[in-house]
Amino acid sequence: MRTQVSVQRKRHRPQLLQYLVMAVVIIATLMLVKGAIAWAAEAYLYPIPIVGGLLQSLEILEVSNVLVFALLGMGLGAITLWLPAKWGTGVRAIALVIAIPLVFLSSYVVRQHLWVQRVAQESELLPQQAEQVTSEILHQATGNAGLLGFFHYTVRSPILPTDLGELQGAHLDDKWFRSELTRYSGVEPGLFSLLFRLTGWGIRVFYIVLSAITAAIYFSKGIVWAETTRLDRSTK
Question: Which of 20, 62, 85, 205 is deepest in the core (most CB within 10 A)?
Fold first, then answer.
C-alpha cells in the first residue's frame, strides 16, 4: 500500500510542476495583455478631444475584461487536468483567486507608470522627483501612496493632472467645483462628494464583479473540459 502511494506521488510531481509553470505563464501573459491594452488606451484613445475624456471617465478599457478574464478562467480551468483527480474545486480555484486581482490591477500599474512619466515630462522633473510628487499627491488625497493610492484616486479623478501647478492645485479646484455646484443648486456639498464617490466606485465595482464572474464561469468550463479529457484517457 505504501509502495502504491509512493508511486502515485512520484507520478504526480512532474504534473504538478507542469501545472504550476503553465499557471504562471497564463497569469503573466494576461497581465501583459491587460497592461498593453491600458497603454494603448492611454496613448491613442484617451487623448482624443472630448470623446477621450468621456471614455476615460467610464474606464472603457475595462470592457476588455470580458475577453481577458474569459481566457484566464478557461486557461486555469483547463490545466487542472494535471492536478490529482481527488482535489476538489476549491483547491483547484486557488490559482484563480490569486490571479484575478493580479490581472485586474496590472492595467493600473501601467496607468500609474505612464502618469508619472507624463508628470516628469510636462513639469520638467526627474523621474525620481515625479515619483515623489505624485506619491505626495496620492497620499494627501487618499491617505495612501503607490498603487493603492492611485487605485483610490482614479475612482474620483479618472482624468489625472500632469502639470505641476495643476497637481498642487487639484485639491483646491475640486473644492471650488463642488462649492460652485452647491451655490447654484443649494444642495449641501457633502452630497455632491458622496454622489461622485458612489458613481466612481459603482463603475469600478461593476468591472471588478464582471471580471470575477467571467473568470468563474469560464473556469468551470475549463474544469469540465479537463475532467472530460481525463475520463477519455482513463477509458483508453
Answer: 62
Containing 204, the helix (H) or strand (E) segment is: helix 189-235
Q: What's at 139, amino acid-wise?
A: H
The model's confidence at residue 9, banded by pLDDT at 50, 70 and 90, is low
3-state helix, strand, coil in the chain (%, to 5): 85, 0, 15
Q: If we measure between CA atoms, which residue out of 21, 35, 36, 27 comes closest to residue 72?
A: 27
Alpha-carbon span 9 to 3, nearest angstrom: 10
Contact predicate 45/60, CB 8 Å = yes
Stronger pLDDT, 217 or 144, i.e. the higher one: 217
Cα-only R_g, the chain: 23
Enter the C-alpha cell of residue 66: 470580458
The answer to whether 218 touches 78, Cβ cutoff 8 Å, is: no
CA angle (147 as vertex; 33, 25 as ends), nearest 5 = 30
**pTM recorded for the entire structure:** 0.83
Residue 127 has pLDDT above 80, yes or no: yes
